Amino acid sequence: MKKAILAVSFGTSHADTLEKTIGAIEADLAAAFPDRQLFRAFTSGMIVKKLNRRDGLAIRTVSQALEALAGEGYEDVVLQSTHVINGEEWDKLRAQAAPFAGRFHRLSFGMPLLTGIEDYRAVTEALLSRLPGPEPGTAIVFMGHGSEHPANAVYATLEYMFHDLGRRDIRVGTVEGYPGFEEVSRRLQEAGDVKRVLCYPLMVVAGDHAKNDLAGEEPDSWRSRLEAQGYEVRCILEGLGEIPEIRAIFVDHAQGAVEEENHG
Ligand code: CO
Question: Which of 11, 21, 249, 253 has its Cβ near the most Cβ atoms within 10 Å?
Answer without folding.
Answer: 21
